[in-house]
Design goal:
180 residues; alpha+beta; Chemotaxis protein chec; seven-stranded antiparallel beta sheet; 29% helix
């Protein structure tokens, strides 16, 4: 049970840092809100849900945004529901991708599914266990991230690997590799 709590804490820390980094790349400063703080305007959310699985681990990431956030972070910045929907799905994909890169440093490999995006009011996941969101506030709007984790027998997190200063770190978040 104590190991489950350590795993949950690590996933929350990694997810919170990844969320702040992700939005920061698009010029949106986010602040992690305290548990007791409510999102600025919870009435209208766009919500992306993306599942993941791996050896002895599976789960779901849910990213919910208030109405203004997709337009603030999207480089295309078109006020179009279809573009906003696609953008929220892409943000969830990038967020889980960053989490995946951090988990790889700890010997955990996950495989991501495609995101599904919903629009509605007062959306919240129905996890298998009690799960509180990681909340973030922005100058305009708010975000919430739920990360559900289920681990099987024998699941282990390794200590974070450190890279040799001369080693090629590979592509960074958001970079593309093109092959001939």
């Amino acid at each position: 049970m104590e190991q489950d709590l350590d795993i949950r804490r690590l996933f929350e820390e990694v997810s919170a840092a990844a969320c702040q980094t992700l939005f920061g790349r698009y010029g949106v400063t986010v602040r992690r809100a305290e548990e007791f703080e409510a999102p600025a305007s919870p009435e209208l959310y766009l919500c992306a849900i993306i599942g993941y699985t791996g050896p002895r681990i599976r789960g779901t990431l849910v990213l919910a945004l208030t109405e203004d956030v997709p337009g603030l972070s999207n480089p295309v910045a078109a006020k179009d529901r279809a573009i906003e929907r696609d953008w929220v799905g892409e943000l969830s994909n990038q967020l889980l991708g960053q989490i995946k890169m951090e988990l790889l440093k700890r010997g955990v490999e996950i495989y991501m599914n495609l995101p599904a995006v919903l629009h509605g009011q007062h959306l919240a996941p129905l996890p298998r266990a009690q799960l509180k969101p990681l909340k973030f506030t922005m100058a305009q709007g708010a975000a919430a991230v739920w990360i559900e984790i289920e681990t099987g027998p024998g699941f282990r997190l390794e200590p974070a690997a450190t890279m040799d200063a001369d080693a090629d770190p590979g592509p960074g978040p958001g970079e593309a590799l093109l092959f001939d």
